[in-house]
Design brief:
The chain has about 120 residues and is mostly beta strands. It is about 0% helix and about 50% strand. The protein has an eight-stranded antiparallel β-barrel. The structure holds the ligand CC(=O)N1C(=O)N[C@@H]2[C@H](CCCCC(=O)O)SC[C@@H]21.
């Protein structure tokens, strides 16, 4: 049965790419994220990601979530989304993300989180 599994190499329209490891039996996975863009003035470095997806023995187009802990800044991003497969077997990850910056005081908390959508396709 054709089902969408997250393992492998993905890219998004910003030019970022990510590699996701084998998904284990409880849906857990790890990987590496190489962002093409940053909200900081830091030099970009590959960053680890950890996440889980709904097991594909029950779902063909599973939902998933993962967290990227950026190695070059003090911020963190969480992604949630779903893996879709078209009738030709082409997979797409439609996601939304929250980017949380580290701010200096609670007074700046209001401006610390950015939100966005993003689509990944296989490389
Ligand atoms: C998928 C997507 O839209 N994004 C992507 O691929 N890279 C940017 C952000 C990278 C943040 C780097 C760390 C920092 O700037 O503090 S996470 C959301 C956005």
């Amino acid at each position: 049965a054709r089902k969408c599994v997250l393992s492998g190499l993905w890219k998004n329209e910003l030019g970022s790419n990510m590699t996701i490891s084998a998904v284990n039996t409880d849906g857990g996975f790890t990987g590496l994220y190489h962002t093409a863009v940053t909200a900081t003035d830091k030099h970009i470095r590959v960053s680890p990601l950890k996440g889980s997806q709904k097991p594909t023995n029950q779902r063909k187009q599973p939902t998933f979530g993962f967290t990227v802990s950026w190695t070059f800044s003090n911020s963190m991003t969480v992604f949630v989304g779903q893996c879709f497969m078209d009738d030709k077997g082409k997979e797409t990850l439609k996601t939304m993300w929250l980017l949380r910056e580290e701010v200096s005081s609670p007074g700046a908390d209001w401006k610390a989180t950015r939100v966005g959508t993003n689509i990944f396709t296989r490389i």
